Amino acid sequence: MKIVSAQGMREIDRATTEQSGIPSSALMENAGAAVATFALKRYPLARRVTVLCGKGNNGGDGFVAARKLAEAGREVQVVLLAEANEVGGDASLMLRRLPFAPRAVRSLGELHDEAIRSLFGADLLVDAILGTGFRPPVSDLYAEAIALVNCGTNSVLAVDIPSGADADAMGRQSGPIARADSIVTFTAPRPAHVFGALTRGVVVIASIGSPQEVIHSSLQLNLSTPQDMVDLLAARAVDANKGTYGHVLVVGGSLGKAGAPAMTGFAALRAGAGLATVATARSVMLTVAAFHPELMTDPLTETEEGTISLRALEYGGLDRMTEGKTVLALGPGLSRHPETTAFVHAFVARTVAPLVLDADGLNAFADCPEKLNGELRPLIITPHPGEMAHLCNCSVAEVQASRMQMARSFAHEHEVTVVLKGHRTLVATPGGEVWVNPTGNPGMATGGTGDVLTGMIAGCVAQNPGRALEATVLAVYLHGLAGDLASDQVGERSLVASDLIRAVPDAIRKTQSHCSGEWVEFHA
Predict the structure, then answer these.
(1) Which of 64, 110, 191, 395 has the highest count of CB atoms within 10 angstroms of its CB?
(2) One domain, residues 275 and 136
(3) What is the pLDDT of residue 518?
(4) Using H for helix, E for strand and C for coil, what is the string for 320-355?
């Protein structure tokens, strides 16, 4: 799903009207109806509803929502923060369709009238004061109305965006902004919906009639949603076999770090790969095999310290190891032993199958990132901010301050797909497109969750080797959703990586069930 700017959204609305013949008033009617539908579903016990409206199109959406909620039997009041004759365009039409007169408020004194202030105590406030076309500063009247909204303890549903927020901002915002327990926006999200932490609840993106062919974004930004993944989660053929879904080779592990590659291999199977083999240092092979009987193992020559040796590639070792494998995953639990680092360099330089590179596989290139190049085959790297800082020779703070730019630049320069982990994990391509992942939670900040992600990416790519980018986006989404489901079960504080693997089947089922939902929603 495209992430669009406020100006881009205006262009989409205009193109919808001009190219598809859908009147702008119909788009407003559909938008207000979507708000009402969500309100009725999400706040079924809210009998008294106050809709706060400005004089622009956002207020017009609010007028429609108020009418629909009244028709559904709710006790609805509309507070209009303007004179009725100041309302123009389609909003004026929707105001005339209201079955009751709004309470017009034109000054701070009127806003603080006891009768008006009592309306702010309704079970549900619908904030339709300012929309995504707003640019600071907020007028005194609107700022005071926002303050009254923020003083309450009732539920607040924002129409399009919380009043006072800058739709194009990608970080923290200043100035008066209305609180929101949920947001209903339309057609496509704006940057602030995804990056702005504007609500404590969900952001809903409702379709209001704009055809897909007019939805374009100059931002080269996309939000990962179940609807984008429907093809990759289609039902399996009745005559399928394990070879149909690919064979993942995981190369990793060392003395004391056997769990990492074992989790990676098993996560690949949970993601749907047909087969998974873990190639690891000989002394830890039995430990890896003991974790999951479904994993095959391949013992490799090791150093005296129990890490994989460069000699593992001698006498046709690389060809034997990779023969028949669909996708390779290199790095979990490898260690930074100098000889193992040399093994990594040789392995990456000589393999042509799709490769997922993580952990110490990435750290091996900290001093020579120029050796990373995905021109000849899909190369997917999965750094956390610390690993990205090593690759870019900068600080973690610098990475976090410009995550988008860092991911895009590295992907372009090295012809790789960059999965930059963290809150709102980014998947960046060499062409500049970025997918933003909306799933996941702070409980996933625990050892091993990155190993699980590597396995899930490898497993998804193994099933779709010709669609490595889409498979990567799917894996990142499922990984975060598995973390969310696991957190629901054990809590963020107690969550461990193996909990994610157990939750993957439910994450897949939930994503499949939401592929054709009436709207898209994600947690801010």
Answers:
(1) 64
(2) no
(3) 76
(4) HHHCCCCEEEECCCCCCCHHHHHHHHHHHHHCCCCE
**Do the domain assignments include residue 224?**
no
Task: Please give the model's pTM, rounded to 2 decimal places.
Answer: 0.96
Is residue 222 assigned to a domain? no
pLDDT of residue 136: 82
**Number of alpha helices (DSSP H) and beta strands (DSSP E) in the chain:** 19, 18
Q: What is the per-residue pLDDT for 269?
A: 98
Note whether 99 and 145 are same-domain residues.
yes
The DSSP secondary structure of 21-84, one letter per residue, reads ---HHHHHHHHHHHHHHHHHHH-TT--EEEEEE-SSHHHHHHHHHHHHHHHTT-EEEEEESS-G
Q: Which of 113, 89, 16, 27 is nearest to 64 (CA)?
A: 27
pLDDT tops 80 at residue 375: yes
State in Å, rounded, how far the first CA of the chain is from the last one: 16
Nearest to 137 by CA among 127, 128, 146: 146
- Under a CB-based contact definition with an 8 Å cutoff, are residues 54 and 26 in contact? no
The residue from 170, 196, 217 where one domain ends is 217
Q: Are strands 275-281 and 296-300 parallel, antiparallel or unpaired?
A: parallel
Residue 414 — pLDDT band, cuts 50, 70, 90?
Answer: very high
Domain with 51 in it: 6-217
Q: Encoding tokens for residue 220? A: 């080269």
Burial 96-127 (b: 16+ CB within 10 A, else e): eebeeebbbbeeeeebeeeebeebbebebbbb
The rounded percent of the chain whose pLDDT value lies above 70 is 100
- The region, left, alpha or beta by phi > 0 then psi within -120 to 50, assigned to residue 420 is beta
Total of domains in the chain: 2
Q: Please give the structure tokens belonging to residue 322.
A: 């990779």
Q: Is the pLDDT of residue 517 over 90?
A: no
Spell out the SS3 assignment of 419-477. EECCCCCEEECCCCCEEECCCCCHHHCCCCHHHHHHHHHHHHHHHCHHHHHHHHHHHHH
What is the spatial distance between Cα 199 and Cα 160, in angstroms, rounded to a whole number? 12
Q: What residues have CB less than 8 Å from 414, skipping those under 6 apart? A: 369, 372, 373, 374, 379, 430
The domain spanning residue 202 has which CATH number?
3.40.50.10260
Query: 470 and 432 in one domain?
Result: yes
pLDDT at 442: 97
Q: Are 204 and 183 in contact (CB under 8 A)?
A: yes
pLDDT given for residue 374 in this prediction:
95
399 and 371 in a common domain: yes
Q: What value does the mean pLDDT take over residues 236-248?
A: 96
177 and 213 belong to one structural domain: yes
